[in-house]
Amino acid sequence: WPAAVVICSVFFMVYFGKAIKNRIERFSEIEIGKGLFKAWSPKGEKTEAISRQNPPLEAGLDFKKTATAGVWLFPNFNELPWDELLGKSKYIDIVVHYLGNILSTRSRVFVRFFQNGGTLRINLPDTSDESKPLLKGIAMRFPEFKESVGCQEETKDTPAEKLIEKINKTIRLLDALAKEGHAKESKIVKIFAREITWYCGVRFDQSYLSLSFYENNRTEKISSPTVLCNLSENKEIGTWFDREFDGLLEKYGKKP
Question: Which of 37, 46, 92, 90 is nearest to 209 (CA)?
Fold first, then answer.
């Protein structure tokens, strides 16, 4: 009888202990893979991720497992792989205050995008008279407008008028690129929102989304860091942008 108990105990520990150990390890991988924080790498290889579990304060952060991130960080908006992203896309959705350098420096790629039948939808600030308070608020974000922030009258030197010119230039450049690419008028959908957006977002098909954020505190012109997300690996971010863009389109724009 005692021998039988010992034999059964040893069998249980060997057989079920291994299964339990494997289950715990597998559970940890799943939980960490779904963690709130994902590491990034420029090549997309597996990188360390922060565990969902809260480690003891004295132990610091717990870097135990790995997860495929599908998220890349670029020093600034201009350093995104625009040629590759635009070259593979049929639909582009943009939320931005205005565009300038990208349309000029990557003009050939945008022309090819339109030549290939691409459709571009862009959300910009509304420039009508009733949106002047909105434009003043947005213009305050840009240090290059700072020298004329104190102007009381609406002249060509005020921040709002400078911003309007930036927006109009964005529209002129896009229209010219679409025309050069022999795009139909319906291939550009312009949305003019009467509310301030706090981020710049560019979605390439349903595949990738770039996000960069407008600062509330900056004293000089800077290039904001930009995050590029693989939407097939980060579906929650894609769902969020769907809701954002569809809401702007519903309130201020027309569907193509």
Answer: 92
Tell me the pLDDT tens digit for each residue of 153-171: 444 567 788 889 999 999 9
Residues in the chain: 256
User: Bridge partners of 130?
Assistant: none
CB atoms within 10 A of CB 108: 12
Tell me: pLDDT of 28 over 70: no
φ/ψ of residue 40, rounded to 5? -130, 160
Going from the C-alpha of 191 to that of each of 88, 97, 165, 242, the distances in angstroms are: 24, 11, 17, 15
Kindly state the DSSP code that residue 90 receives in the 8-state scheme: S
User: Which residue is it, tokens 């715990």?
Assistant: 24
Tokens of 235: 């579906």
Q: Tell me, rounded to whole angstroms, the distance of Cα 47 from its chain centroid.
A: 20
Cβ neighbours around 139 below 10 Å, total? 23
Eight-state DSSP code of residue 97? S
How many Å apart are CA 78 and CA 100, to the nearest integer? Answer: 11
Bridge partners (DSSP) listed for residue 48: 66
